[in-house]
């Protein structure tokens, strides 16, 4: 139920659509780094000024504040206003898949223990009695309970994939990055500074994230939303 609630919130919450009415407000939220996000840039499609960390979504056909990505799972953009819901949705979805895997495995283990299958014998292709081994036991369970074994395999793979994606999403949140910024960060730096290859190897040649202000501040920015940049400077 929790997963369904946050799935619905992620689907229907405005991700931070930039319009004429809120354009000036969004322009004050983040500073421009003049590498990935330059000042006085306008969206060629919307005709609006582009705030820092925003991007035009070709699927939704509008610019989104603090654009992360367009998620086909929820048929909505992930932006400043629904990232918090998306993270909790991803967390509960991973937990649900892991719970299904644990319950399926526990059922099969309980079945083996109650039936004493691990102590039984079987006849091989040569007519010899053999002690039940792990490979044969798995084959027996698959033939006897194919749906449960298939479900177990499926949710185990799903748990690993979702867990990996969850770790990546938490890493981005902890470092105050978006998927869009992580993907094109260093590339934007090299495009902006074509002579960077001539610099000494001792000097850093990677994109520096100016939006990260420590773990706690980064998480607050996502779950409590960011205020204008001049307020953060004053603090």
From TrEMBL:
It holds the Pfam family DHHC. Coiled coil: none annotated. The chain crosses the membrane at residues 86-109, 148-174. InterPro entries: Palmitoyltrfase_DHHC, PFA4/ZDH16/20/ERF2-like. Residues 41-184 form the Palmitoyltransferase DHHC domain. It is a multi-pass membrane protein. The DHHC domain is required for palmitoyltransferase activity. Belongs to the DHHC palmitoyltransferase family. This is Palmitoyltransferase. The gene is Zdhhc4.
């Amino acid at each position: 139920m929790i997963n369904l609630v946050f799935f619905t919130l992620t689907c229907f919450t405005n991700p931070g659509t930039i319009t004429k009415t809120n354009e000036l407000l969004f322009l004050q939220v983040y500073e421009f780094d003049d590498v990935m996000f330059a000042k006085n840039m306008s969206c060629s499609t919307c005709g609006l000024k582009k705030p820092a960390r925003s991007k035009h979504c070709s699927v939704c056909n509008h610019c989104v504040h603090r654009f992360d990505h367009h998620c086909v799972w929820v048929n909505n953009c992930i932006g400043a206003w629904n990232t918090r819901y998306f993270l909790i949705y991803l967390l509960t979805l991973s937990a649900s898949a892991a719970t299904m895997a644990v319950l399926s495995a526990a059922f099969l283990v309980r079945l083996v223990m109650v039936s004493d299958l691990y102590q039984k014998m079987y006849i091989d292709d040569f007519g010899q009695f053999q002690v039940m081994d792990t490979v044969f036991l798995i084959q027996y369970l698959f033939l006897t309970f194919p749906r449960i074994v298939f479900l177990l395999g499926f949710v185990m793979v799903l748990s690993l994939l979702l867990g990996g994606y969850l770790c990546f999403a938490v890493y981005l949140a902890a470092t105050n990055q978006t998927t869009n910024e992580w993907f094109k960060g260093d590339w934007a730096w090299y495009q902006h500074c074509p002579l960077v290859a001539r610099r000494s190897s001792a000097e850093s040649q990677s994109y520096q994230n100016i939006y990260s202000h420590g773990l706690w501040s980064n998480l607050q920015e996502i779950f409590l939303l960011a205020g204008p940049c001049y307020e953060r400077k004053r603090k």
